[in-house]
Each structure stands twice: as structure tokens, then as C-alpha cells.
Amino acid sequence: DGSAIELMSSSRNTLKNVEARNNTSVGVLVQFSHNNSFINSKFLFANDDNIYLCGSNGNLIENSTFLGRGFSTLGGGHEGIHVYEGSSFNIIRRNNIQFHNIAGIALNDFTNASSNGCTVGAVSSAPGMNNLIEYNIVTNNGINQSSIGGGGIEGIFLGGVDFTRVRNNLIRNNIGGGITIAGGTFLGVPFSS
């Protein structure tokens, strides 16, 4: 379907020093795959999300670069890292650079929603939990994307996730704001916007 790499029900893989570029769909598609590592890699100019995880637990995304199409005339492009959280737990995003995407990092958990062929409601109604976002550089996301309207153009978007920690990130110059929280539980306290 135009993805450079697809992990479907595949676990304990390490992708190191990989470059996925100019994909007509998602750069890396990860569905129902657990304990995988994406390290020291570049995910560039995908027509959809640069890396997309769904129903996948314990995945590490570290020391990688996610450059969207926001700066170019090519159009397309979505999130640098998009975790469609239905039943996705213990995802760590550390020391990454996200820029010129619609949103730098997006964590969604909208039950019975579907995106890129992953129907969250069919997986579980449980929200994504215990995720960590730290030491990332999230900058210039949403630039040249203001025509899409609505949300989805921020540095970090947290939608309906529980017990998610966001700490020690450099977040700047994102057109829709730095961090958007749209419900969930943070540090054990329910939150809704």
C-alpha cells in the first residue's frame, strides 16, 4: 500500500539506521506488533504519517528524525509519530526530532474509530496507557498546514490517553500550540478539555 516497512503481528524486531523516504502512504506501519525498537533512523516525507502504531505494546522509538512534507510544495504528510492508542501500552518516544509535520507526536484513543485500517473498537475499548514522551525536539509543526482547519497542527497531541508522561521536551514554533490535551487521565487525575 505504499509503506516502506510494515510490521503486522510481528514482535521483538530492531530497526536501526533505517531510512524511509517519500512513501505514498505511511512510512512505517506497525499493527498488533510488540516490543519493537526503532533506533537512529530517518522517516522522511511520507504522504501520511511517518510512523504509525496501532494496538502495539512496548515499542521504543529513539534517536530518530521525523521530517514531514509541511515545508515543501509536495503536499500530503501527517504526524511524525502517530500512535493510534487503542490497546497500545508502554510506548516510549525518546530523543527524537519531529519537524514540519501536521503534528509532531500524536497519541489518540478514540474508541470505535478507524485509521489506516486499524479499528480501535475491535481491539479493545481500553485506552493507551503508561506511555512516555521525553527529550524530544518538536518544532515547526503545522507550518504551511493552516488550511486544514481545526486541531491536529500542534507539537504534541494527547487525545484520550491515560497515565501518559510528557517531560523534558523542547517544543517550539508549532502553529497550533505546543501540547494539546483532549481528555484522559494524567498522573491519576481525570482530565477533559
Explain what this protein looks like in three dimensions.
The chain is mainly β. The protein contains 1 helix and 24 strands. A 7-stranded parallel sheet has the order 1-4-7-10-13-18-22, with no helix packed on it. Strands 2-5-8-11-16-20 form a 6-stranded parallel sheet, with no helix packed on it. A 6-stranded parallel sheet has the order 3-6-9-12-17-21, with no helix packed on it. It is globular and about 35 Å long. The model is unreliable at 71-76, 111-125 and 146-151 (pLDDT under 50).
- What level of helicity do the residues show? under 10%
How would you sum up the major sheet?
7 strands, parallel
Beta-strand content estimate: 35-45%
How do the strands of the widest beta sheet line up side by side?
A: 1-4-7-10-13-18-22
Q: How many β-strand stretches?
A: 24
Give the secondary structure arrangement, pairings included:
Layout: E1 5-8, E2 14-16, E3 19-21, E4 28-31, E5 37-39, E6 42-44, E7 51-54, E8 60-62, E9 65-67, E10 81-84, E11 92-94, E12 97-99, E13 105-108, E14 114-115, E15 118-119, H1 120-123, E16 132-134, E17 137-139, E18 156-159, E19 161-162, E20 165-167, E21 170-172, E22 179-181, E23 184-186, E24 189-191
Parallel strand pairs: 1-4, 2-5, 3-6, 4-7, 5-8, 6-9, 7-10, 8-11, 9-12, 10-13, 11-16, 12-17, 13-18, 16-20, 17-21, 18-22, 19-23
Antiparallel strand pairs: 14-15, 23-24
